[in-house]
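Minutes, structural biology subgroup

Action item carried over from last meeting: produce the structure token record for Chromosomal replication initiator protein DnaA (Spirosoma liriopis). EB confirmed the sequence was re-checked against the source entry. Recorded below for completeness.
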Amino acid sequence: MQREVMTVWNRCLSVIREIVPEQSFNTWFEPIVPLRLNGSVLTIQVPSEFFYEWLEENFVHALRKALDTAIGRDGQLEYSIIVDKGNEQNRPLTVNVPTTKTPQTAKPDNVNPDILKSPFVLKDLDSLTLDSYLNPTYTFDNYVEGDCNRLARQAGYAVAERPGVTSFNPLMIHGGVGLGKTHLVQAIGNYIKNNNQNKFVLYVTSEKFTNQFLNAIRTDGIRDFTAFYMQVDVLVIDDVQFLQKKEKTQEIFFHIFNHLHQSGKQIIMTSDRAPRALDGLEDRLLSRFKWGLSADLQTPDLETRIAIIQKKLQAEGIYIDDTVIEYLAHSVNTNVRELEGVIVSLMAQASLNRREIDLELAKHTLRNIVVDSEREITIDSVQEIVADFFTVTVADLKAKSRKRELVYPRQVAMYLAKEKTDLSLKSIGYHFGGRDHSTVIHAIQTISDLVTKNTETRASIEKLKALFK
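Output recorded by EB:
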């Protein structure tokens, strides 16, 4: 009996293989297990209810032709669906489907898009173009490459030129807040959209994906939801870490991911950390995230920050002196988003006050931004407090003088700048008259030793630290 059912099913597969594309055949027919043949009724086992619905919705003609050839016109198909009951033992759910659906080939003449659950119903109509939800301002042209993002940018460009063909599938871009993840993945999407008119690119945040899924459950639209995503050529999903602990959403995303990947479609994702650090995601999903390439984005170095400022100013048609650009690049070293925000604020201040952008305005703008946000300690505030404490001027701290009454306060200011700010040694040296980072190291070491051995120095440092609070 088992040999007979296998023979019949193999005949069905040989017919289906001639009709269905190879990728679809591998995705939807290879996982099927033939169970039994009872007269003219063939029973096959499929892994989910959605799986059988998809077969009936998309491959009914191929199945009908296969049954006609292998069994005859009386042939019928019965599905045995394995339903996951959690900790309970898997139980088969049998669905009797005669597979005699008639094709619907006519295009609708007048269609109201509001009544459609999936815009893909209208994908082939000239009257409607689907929205990719991409921001057209995010391009490779205005994405500044540096050591901090070179691998991610080059991998992204390779994917953009040959989506679904490179080994970078999926492509995972991960990094901290404001480092340009969204810009890069949308640049990939825009490049593909502009250079491959036949490919549909979709950008979606994981939060929106989850909300769409929950809405599909409420409205009994799971089939349309899944069908929509399974027809995407390039799926860009932002912030996948927010799928953590959402078991049902992860499950549907797992099936969509599998289908797209096996169909040669491109998947691009972002996350705030590497896949190995994503707790709360299923192991089977994490393992698939590691199939392609994971590229991280680091905090931009000084040279990259300068290039970002220059690019932003060039786009706005504004020129400012190099000393101001260097000051901004040295002073803001957290992320690209904050750096761009400072530039926008600086341009707004210049426009409102009808004045040129100079070093004084840059310092004033930075001070206001820092105070308004988190009252963080800046290099300027360190210099001002130390200069006032030792009755010297900020200019004295930056001067070349080697007088002891100036060297000691300067070293204290460098020591506190290293402790109280996130600036690099190179940036601290820049703010003290362009001194070398080795000078900063020497100053920090000198004051550290004095704090340990000298009670007067230790008391001075404690008083200064209290002034920052």
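Discussion: Residues 2-19 form the longest helix (18 residues).
Next step: EB to file the record with the rest of the batch.
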